[in-house]
Amino acid sequence: MAFRLLLLPGDGIGPEVIAEVERIIAWFNAEGARFEIERDFVGGAAFDVHGTPVTEAAMKKALEADAVLFGAVGGPKWAGVPYDMRPEAALLRLRKDLGLFANLRPAICFDALKDSSALKPEVVSGLDIMIVRELTGGVYFGEPRGITTLADGERRAVDTQVYTTGEIRRIARVAFELARKRRNKVASAEKHNVMHSGLLWKEEVTHVHATEFKDVELTHILADNCAMQLVRNPKQFDVIVTDNLFGDVLSDEAAMLTGSIGMLPSASLGNRDAKTGKQRALYEPIHGSAPDIAGKGVANPLAAILSFAMCLRYSFAMAQEADLLERAIAQILDDGYRTRDVMQAGRSELGTAAMGAKVLGALDKLHA
Ligand code: NAD
Question: Among all residues, which ones are annotated catalytic?
Answer without folding.
Answer: 140, 191, 224, 248, 252
